[in-house]
Amino acid sequence: MQIVTLSLKEQNIVPIEADTITPDNFAGKSTDEIEAILVYYGNSQASIGELFNVSVDGSDSVENTKIIFDGNVPRVKRIGQGMSAGEIEINGNVDMHCGSNMTGGKITINGNADSWVGCEMKGGEIVVNGNGGYYVGGGYRGEACGMAGGKITINGNVRDFLGEHLCGGEIIVNGDAGLLPGISNSGGTIIIEGNTTMVASEMKAGTVVVKGNVAEMMPAFREEGTEEFHGVTFRKFTGDVNVGGKGVLLVK
Fold first, then answer.
1. Segment 10-64, tens digit of pLDDT
2. What is the Cα–Cα distance from 97 to 117, expressed in whole angstroms?
3. Angle, vertex CA 86, rays to CA 72 and CA 159, nearest 5
4. Closest listed residue to residue 77, CA positions, set 103, 42, 34, 102
5. Domain ranges in the chain?
6. To the nearest 5 percent, what fractions of the chain are helix, strand and coil?
7. Is the pTM here over 0.85, yes or no?
């Protein structure tokens, strides 16, 4: 097992773009080699060693490499972007795009995650033990698909546009969701344990389950009786009929 521990030398105001901080890039490298890896710091580059304290214990494959962030990194973006294996643990809050485009491995965030966590991810798992921002598991502007595979669990609340353009995978929110969760989704599953509003607009396919209250239902769904999900009976709707959708919306 290789464990790499990072902590900021000082809390940064200028954002750090840390897409190079992945188990794929760290596996088998020494402290000096990891410290020499570059990140973007504002509009210029800096080495990891200039910005972070780095500690390396062991040397191993990508699958057996774990990166631990000791403390909040609220102005560090793109941690774990595109990672394929291994593990990242963030013991604090994290900035935008964490785990975007990842294909495997696991990220655990013991704090809040800013917007676009898990954006366009294709595999792996993300667990946020705080709240999520906007566009959890969503897609970037102009893209036909957001998240296409893997699993995201948010143990707090999320803001608007949860799972926007979802094409596959599973998102579970154990709190409330903001406006328009599941908008334009065409696959995958979204489960919201709490309350939300205006759910699954322009849904073409996939499943959305709301166990709390829906403050405002979109008018473009057909009600088709009831359906059981995990042993609980829900009202079943299909649509969005405006786009010829055949998605399933289950509302408690």
1. 999 999 999 999 999 999 999 999 999 999 999 999 999 999 999 999 999 999 9
2. 5
3. 45
4. 42
5. 1-86, 112-252
6. 10, 40, 55
7. yes
Q: For residue 75, is it left (φ>0), alpha (ψ between -120 and 50) or beta? A: alpha
Q: Rounded to 5 degrees, what are φ and ψ at 162?
A: -55, 130
Between vectors from CA 107 to CA 104 and to CA 113, what angle results, nearest 5°? 130
- Paired with 6 in beta bridges are 54, 69
Q: Put the strands of the sheet holding 38-41 in their side by side order.
A: 44-47, 38-41, 16-17, 76-77
**Which tokens hold the place of 210?**
């709301």
Q: Which residues contact 198 (CB under 8 A, 6 or more apart)?
A: 179, 180, 215, 216, 217, 218
H-state helical runs in 27-167: 31-35, 48-51
What the block records as the tokens of 188 is 């995958």
Nearest-angstrom CA–CA distance, 118 and 84: 13
Query: Given the structure tokens 């410290």, which residue do they identify?
Result: 35
Name the phi and psi angles at 156, rounded to 5: -115, -140
